[in-house]
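Bit of a strange request maybe. I'm writing a small parser for structure token strings and I need a real example to test against, not something I typed by hand. Could someone generate the tokens for this chain?
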Amino acid sequence: MRIQVTSISGITTKPGKFKPYKVYDLEFIDQESGREKKRQMMEFNSGAAFQRLADSEIGSTWEVTTKPAKDPQYTDWVNAEQASDEEPVEAPKAAKGKVSKTVPAATPFKSTYETPEERARKQVYIVRQSSITAALTYRGSLSSGNSIDDIIECAKEFETYVFGNEQQSEPKVPTVD
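Reply from user aminoacidic:
Good idea to test on real output. This should exercise your parser:
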């Protein structure tokens, strides 16, 4: 597996069952998938990779040798050798045929969370939708002689009241002819 180191936390010592062991967090880009990943490196199951990656520089590229761990859902990192930038990387196994390519630098991680502006806009949509429902309930249905404009004006009054933008009197009661 080929990785590019993006962050290394400080090495700490943790008490173990039999003796203390060293551990640190390694953040890297898996250059085969292009995804940013994080791995907790532990002295007792990382072999030579533990110290080599701990001493590595941010942005350096490494070829990591792995082996299956005792628990099949985990993989032990056995060794890490610094890779040259020109070395081709094999395509992921899902690709058909033997494709070899040089992986470009991965793009930085992009958040998928809503921005505060997007959340505020969504909240306005929710209030408007519920205001229209409340206006329809309050004024009666369109079949009782109310126009769409009457319902929307009533809904705007509810919306204004909810957001507290203006002092608002009670909504107007429809007149029955």
